[in-house]
Amino acid sequence: MKPLFRIEANDPSQFLALLPALLGRTPADEIVVAFMRDTVVSVFLAVQLPIVDVDRLRHNLDRATSTTPTNRYQLIGYGPQRVVIAAFDMIRAHLDATHEPVGIYRIEGSGRDARMCQPDDSPSAAAASASSLDADMSALSDEEQMIVHEMKPVLGTDRHKVDYAALLACFDVVTEFRQHHRVGEFHVQDLVDDARTRVAAAPTTWRAGSLGDRDAARLAMAVHIKAVRAEALARAAAAIVVADHDTVNAHLGVWLDVMRRVHVHLLAAPAAVYSCIAYAAGQTLRAEGAAIVAFDADPSYDLAHIMHHVTQDEAPADELLAKLVATIEEVRELSGEPRPNWLHPLVVAMSAIYDWFPPGEWLAAARLVPGYPMQTQLEPGRPAEKQ
Predict the structure, then answer these.
(1) Measured CA angle at 383 (ends 358, 216), to 5 deg
(2) Residues 6+ apart with CB under 8 A from 154
(3) Among 121, 129, 48, which residue's Cα sits nearest to residue 81?
């Protein structure tokens, strides 16, 4: 059968500009897979983000190519960088055995403000742009390349697991709150105490290799509470002062592990904590890299903003260390008694995670958390599921 019409595009920017017209809508929060036979695009498949069912994704990819012979493809991603890159990795893991990738692109903005980011025709495009440190690797020193590699986020099916762990961690927190609140026992102190305990135990847990994805999410949530974040920094600073390198490396290891595995809406806090500890310990390049990650995740996050300027201005490391050194008792005395507004940054992050997942997905996740109050309203403005 002859095509009804034929449109020619002479370069990627023309092709991407035509996509909304070809799809009949403006793409948003999705991956568009353009399947090709040599140089002709013959099949489009839109994959909604986030990808929550890898088996269904594979089925849809196979079905899209079952009726029309194709041998190449392009990926065009619309959405947050880490979400798009993770989806690229899942799609490529299934297609690369039978199809040649000829273009991988990410679009930022929409309408007239839309712009193409990180175009690359090479098969390693998705992996090369997996970190917000995706500079030209050839221009980096060996040490800088190593740091870019070690900060690269978890991708592929493991990316979905860690993102899902963040959703479950949100439900854990809500469940704990509601269980205590029903009997009138809940205070902000309960959540703060739990966060402090997790942060204090984190280096030991990490050394033992028992830091799970859900634990990593809870640690990221813990340092969204500024008073708890101050304790995390004080504990690391104490080890730096006495040159306890093993403990310093454990603190750095914890937060590096967390920032690689945590959901994008929880990323800024642990990345900024890692940057701060690394800078105080004299590991400037690592501090700069993590500051970029934190600032890219959320430029409005206070410590991300601070570390961005500290690393850019090359402030003396000993001055930063001096500001962090304090006993836990001094930190708590300075912070005062826990107050409800301490939880505001955490609540904002949790709300963003809820919105990031399709409603059906987070309702299914809620069923996996023992004791979650499904009969009550799950979130302000969002109706409870009918039993």
Answers:
(1) 50
(2) 162, 260, 261
(3) 129
H or E element that contains 308: helix 302-313
Of the candidate CATH numbers 3.40.190.10, 3.40.50.720, 3.40.140.10, 3.30.300.30, the domain formed by 12-130 belongs to 3.40.140.10
Q: Which helix (H) or strand (E) holds 319?
A: helix 317-324
Provide CATH 3.40.140.10 ranges for the chain: 12-130
The rounded distance, in Å, linking the Cα atoms of 283 and 300 is 24
First and final CA of the chain: distance in angstroms? 50
Q: Per residue in 180-233, pLDDT tens?
A: 554 444 568 888 999 999 999 999 999 998 899 999 999 999 999 999 999 999
**Distance, CA of 82 to CA of 159 (rounded, Å):** 9
What is the residue type of 291?
Answer: A
Collapsing DSSP states into helix, strand and coil, what is residue 260? helix
259 Cβ contact partners less than 8 Å away, ≥ 6 residues apart: 151, 220, 267, 270, 271, 274, 290, 293
Among the ranges 36-45, 49-58, 319-328, which has the highest mean pLDDT value?
A: 319-328
Pick the closest to residue 309 from 297, 320, 318 (CA basis): 320
- 248 neighbors 321 (Cβ within 8 angstroms): no
